[in-house]
Fold this protein.
Amino acid sequence: MRTGVMEKVLDTLNEAYPSHPMGELTEGNPFRVLIACIMSLRTKDDIMIPLATTLFEIADTPEAIAALGEKRLAELIYPVGFYKTKARDMIVICERLIHEFYSKVPDDIETLLTFKGIGRKTANLVLGLGHGKPAVCVDVHVHRICERLGYLSGCRDPEATEMAIRQKLSETYWHIINRVLVRHGQDCCKPTKTLCSQCPVETLCDKVNVTPR
């Protein structure tokens, strides 16, 4: 698939999926994006979003979450995957934000990646959804669908996919690729049950390793 066709795919999906799954929850707040993304790792949105909503009603600043303490925070975010580890990491992150960054979430990927518990996916989502900066956030949906479309091939992991997208795709599209492909992956281009007959970009897709349903 040529980049021009990929741009048509993203334009079409942008109309189909105008909102990010975490958009209403995070309200463009970088700290909320950070906490919600950490909670979402290896956890489905239908579990994470209600828990994060409740958490943010109780505490949605570094000071407030740090004040909860690790045990209480773990109770509030259960049953997200690895909830005890995430609670510990979140407390450490909040304390560092308070003491080193005046409670502000950094807006550059190099600094974000120095925090324990923050990987490239989380850092890029914070930059894009939280700070409104160009960022390519690659999760399993983005990784899978770029290969299925025929836009990328041979990318061994999400980081390789991110770097390939940065090289091939105009920065204009960086801010929407996570939103539209995550939604598309959840609703239509699923891991094991691809709903090709319902897909708005079916005629543009190369259907690599796909058996249409």
